[in-house]
Amino acid sequence: MQRVVFPNKILPYILVAPQIVLTIVFFFWPASQALYQSVMRENPFGLKSGFVGLANFSAVLADGSYLNSLQVTVIFSVLTALLSMGLALLLATAADRVVRGQTFYRTLLIWPYAVAPAVAGMLWLFMFNPAMGTFAYILRRNGFYWDPLLNGNHAMVLIVVAAAWKQISYNFLFFVAGLQAIPKSLIEAAAIDGARGTRRFWTIVFPLLAPTTFFLLVVNTVYAFFDTFGIIHSVTGGGPAKATETLVYKVYNDGFVNLNLGSSAAQSVILMAIVVALTAFQFRFVERRVHYG
Amino acid sequence: MIEKRPISNLIGHLMLIVGIIIVVFPIYYTFVASSLTSTEIVRPPMPLAPGGRLAENYGEALAGGVERVVGVSLERLLFNTFVVAIAIAVGKIVISFLSAFAIVFFRFPLRMAFFWMIFITLMLPVEVRILPTYKVIVDLGLIDTYAGLTLPLMASATATFLFRQFFLTVPGELVEAARIDNAGPFRFMRDILLPLSKTNIAALFVILFIYGWTQYLWPLLVTNDSRMNTIIIGLRKMVDFADASTPWNYVMVTAILAIIPPVVVVVLMQRWFVKGLVETEK
Q1: Which residue windows are transmembrane per the record (chain B) (predicted)?
Q2: Rounded CA gap, A160 and A81, in Å?
Q3: What predicted TM-score, i.e. pTM, was given to this entire model?
């Protein structure tokens, strides 16, 4: 806390005003509207709405398509996080090992961070679209019937690859920072005790990377939950047959396409609860990381 | 280096080269496609070396080729995206800097209440409250305006939080010295705080520019008029696999132009970008 401050009385209010106004107008007001609508239901003509208590929530949670989309989201997040973090960790250990050219490699590896998720999805779709993609053509010629437009599993693979590709840069940079923070003396001590490279990695480096790994796991989950709307909207549109409809996509679809306001609002509230839980989880962890360091 | 092991070093280089191929290939593939004719693109396998239509494709796409497809010129799409990305980055930095300044260097009633109001927004991305936020924009008449595209995305706490953390490390002696020298709060902000925050501002700028450039859901909702689209929404509208008349060469040109500016920003400002990324997310 700053001990020395300025004595002005009015000025601080003027300084915080822009942010507070934006926060109230675009955050507190809409969030309270979502809460309000989640306990209301409009009649079929949209003229009147009445209080229905938690009926929207129980309807959403009992809805098979909602549970399906929850399952899709969890599978999608886990696969994306594992694939992206696995590749990034491999590349980060490699970058830690090479003597020259680290900056050169890093410069090329950070590119996908700057590519919009929707564009990342389209790039992979260009390569793997059954009609014109070169790789879809190669797969087909080798007897593999590849069609992400009809086969739900293929569609899932495609969006997982696109989402993981986009996230490699981010995970790579954090793993490199994590590896650099490990004291060299520990690794040297292990080397003197005769531990070889692989053994040193699994017994010393990997456990010491645990805080970074854990942090990235939370960040990647949040990314897969919320930031991948663009990928899904531009690659699969939630299809085929809802095989790639994630929770955020469903909120959008029910609210803007099916115009089911009560249900969409209830889903928003559930999503808010998920984000709050994930963030609280992350903050607890950040506290822990401070003690580690 | 623990041991001198040239083979391990070599394997490291090989892995990194494979990694770079994976990472850069989709972009290279699209770049190659942007130098071919539309018929060459849709007839797999596509050649993997650039074709001869590079200049023609880019020239035609810019000179009305894209406009005939989606009703808005490529320059306009690029311009809109630049406006949105810069407005979000600059707007967020300015309002966050001011509010963090007020919260750290003044004592006033409701100070902590304001801090928590801002802090709570860290948690909720726009994606989870799209419908009610959309309704606010409609009620305010901000559909199809730059204000509607950018203002809701400025209301978030990350930058405020970062500035607050940094301001707390500024030694109290500096503030004391400024006050003894009779400098008011604005003088202190301009002559001491701003120069000290330069690297933080640069780092935030890169992160927020990318954030603004890559927005998708929000621009999709608040623009009905195609002249207000960002380049990513424009690109999405051009891509239609079912339509045989989709001009794929223009699509590829648009994709490359949607990718290049943020990549250039990240690569040129790499040092601040890495610092900003690793520090803001802590």
Answers
A1: 7-29, 82-106, 113-131, 143-163, 199-218, 248-269
A2: 9
A3: 0.89
| pLDDT grade for A158, boundaries at 50, 70 and 90 | very high
Nearest C-alpha in A relative to B231: A119
For residue A293, what pLDDT is reported?
33
DSSP for B218-231, please give it: HHHHH--SGGG--H
B106 DSSP β-pair partners: A6
What region does B110 belong to: left with phi over 0, alpha with psi -120 to 50, or beta?
left
Residues from chain A that touch B149, judged by Cβ atoms under 8 A, are none
Residue range A18-46, pLDDT digits in tens: 999 998 888 888 888 888 878 877 665 66
The residue whose two tokens read 């500035």 is: B163
Q: CA B175, CA B192: separation in Å to the nearest integer?
A: 9
Query: Above 80 in pLDDT, residue B266?
Result: yes
Q: Distance between CA atoms of A122 and A116, rounded to whole angstroms?
A: 10
Q: How many Å apart are CA A3 and CA A5, to the nearest integer?
A: 6
**Cis check: omega of the bond before A183, within 30 degrees of 0:** no
Q: Which residues contact B211 (CB under 8 A, 6 or more apart)?
A: B88, B89, B153
In a domain, B53, yes or no: yes
Provide the domain count of chain A: 1
Residue A79 scores a pLDDT above 50 = yes
Q: Is residue B9 part of a domain?
A: no
Considering only the beta carbons, identify the residue of A105, A215, A272 that sits closest to B128: A272
Residue A187 with chain B: CB contacts under 8 Å: 2
SS3 category, A70: helix
Residue of A63, A27, A57 whose CA lies nearest to A40: A57
What are the helix and strand counts (H, E) for chain A? Answer: 14, 2
**Total number of domains in chain B:** 1
Residue B53: give the domain boundaries: 34-280
CA distances for B21 relative to A290, B18, B24, B28, angstroms: 36, 5, 5, 9
User: What CATH number does the domain containing A251 carry?
Assistant: 1.10.3720.10
B172-218 pLDDT, tens digit per residue, is 888 888 888 888 888 889 988 999 988 889 888 998 999 999 989 88
Tokens coding B143:
């559909």
Using CB atoms and an 8 Å cut-off, which of residues 90-129 of chain A contact chain B?
Answer: 90-91, 93-95, 97-99, 101, 105-120, 122-127, 129
Enter the DSSP assignment of B102: H
User: Residue B275 sits in a domain of what CATH number?
Assistant: 1.10.3720.10
Amino acid at site B162: L
| Residue A199 contacts residue A191 (beta carbons within 8 Å) | no
Query: What is the number of residues in chain A?
Result: 293
